[in-house]
Amino acid sequence: MGCAPYQPSLKTFRTFAAMNDVLGQAIYDYHHKLGKHKLWIHNHYGPKEEMPVATYFRTEDDMPDLEWLALNECRGKILDVGAAAGCHALLLQERNFDVTAMDISPLAVQVMSARGVIKTLPADIYRYQHEQFDTILLLMNGIGLAGTVDGLKLLLNHFKLLLKPGGQIICDSSDIAYLYDEIPFPEDRYYGEISYQYQYKGQKTDWFNWLYADEEIMHRTAAECGYQMEVLVEDEYGQYLARLTM
């Protein structure tokens, strides 16, 4: 069936803005060693799953090859969208990049700063348009914050305001068709549009949409928005890393 896709992280900006900061609290508690509570994620296609909070704190040695390549492809002034605990921003800092780590979660931003991220930005990506960057980075399927295919068009068009001439978007996603080996494909939406709900210490978020875009959908949507797409790497599980340029 293949490995499970990356779960959505602290990267859903517009959706999480109206929620309790459940994920931020989980990251904050983990960093400050405030108990060993589990972070759960509910979905509509199977039982709930535990999301290990340690994932947001992993070091370079713990990262998959796809993320190593993504970091190696970064250039110039970088915006790390949905930086969570700042693991990617910290590595880019070590390489002397000018990197800004953005997240809508105030608690996550506190943790990033405490861990040594120099430039942090508590902001909603859809409302932010104050600077331009050479690279916009979205890892752990961060592009999924678009929620739907239509939302992906909206997000890619917004990124045009944030990219310098010659700039690039580095993102990963995956084809999750294997989830439907035993259940029927949805008839009312693209099969990569998934609904999730987080739960931590008795608190739950509202249900929110997350997008897993297969290569064909990503390529077609990017082209409609005026981007060229290059697949940098893909694996046998349908996960891939892409570069989008104007």
From TrEMBL:
Q: Which domain of life is it from?
A: Bacteria
Q: Which Pfam families match?
A: Methyltransf_25 (PF13649)
Single Gene Ontology BP annotation = methylation
Keywords, ordered alphabetically: Methyltransferase, Transferase
* Xref: InterPro entries: Methyltransf_25 (IPR041698), SAM-dependent_MTases_sf (IPR029063)
Molecular function via GO: methyltransferase activity
The Methyltransferase domain, residue ranges: 78-167
What is the protein named? Answer: Methyltransferase family protein
Q: Which organism is it from?
A: Mucilaginibacter yixingensis
Provide the taxonomic classification: Bacteria, Pseudomonadati, Bacteroidota, Sphingobacteriia, Sphingobacteriales
